[in-house]
């Protein structure tokens, strides 16, 4: 296979493998704003793969307790060792503040959402 671009998740992160690290970010090929938004939404969903979601109006102190608990889990050496043993990869979680930012900045344009549904589904891709 010949790879010509990469979707970095998160965007600023370089791939650890040298052959992939030299590839340009796929967003650099997007010319239209809606295409950039589509890639941003795609990256956002890839970044926030398993967020912990709380209902609106959750008291701030409870949010902070859960955020602190997640930080402790992800920094626990035993958790990191078990994770690496199970998936053969390093733990690289986003801090709660970073994850919140990713979710808040995700595009919400109806046209972009429909385009993402189209390319993520089983139907033929739309023509250009």
Task: Explain what this protein looks like in three dimensions.
7% of the residues are buried. This protein starts with 17 loop residues before the first helix and ends in an 8-residue tail after the last helix. Helices cover 52% and strands 0% of the residues. It has six helices and no strands. It has 128 residues and is mostly helical. It is globular.
Number of strands: 0
Mean pLDDT metric = 85
**H and E string:** HHHHHH
Query: How many helical elements?
Result: 6
Structural class: mainly alpha
Amount of helix: 40-55%
Secondary-structure blueprint:
Layout (H helix, E strand, L loop, with lengths): L17 H4 L11 H15 L12 H16 L1 H11 L8 H10 L4 H11 L8
Helix pairs in contact: 2-6
For this entry, give a set of tags.
mainly alpha; 128 residues; 6 helices
Short structural description:
This protein is mainly alpha-helical. The longest helix is centred in the middle third of the chain and has 16 residues.
């Amino acid at each position: 296979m010949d790879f010509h671009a990469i979707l970095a998740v998160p965007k600023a992160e370089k791939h650890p493998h040298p052959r992939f690290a030299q590839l340009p970010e796929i967003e650099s090929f997007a010319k239209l704003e809606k295409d950039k938004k589509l890639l941003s939404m795609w990256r956002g969903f890839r970044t926030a793969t398993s967020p912990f979601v709380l209902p609106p109006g959750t008291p701030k102190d409870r949010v902070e307790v859960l955020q602190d608990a997640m930080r402790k889990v992800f920094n626990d050496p035993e958790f990191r060792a078990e994770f690496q043993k199970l998936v053969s990869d390093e733990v690289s979680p986003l801090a709660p503040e970073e994850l919140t930012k990713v979710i808040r900045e995700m595009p919400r344009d109806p046209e972009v959402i429909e385009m993402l549904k189209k390319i993520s589904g089983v139907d033929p891709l739309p023509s250009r």
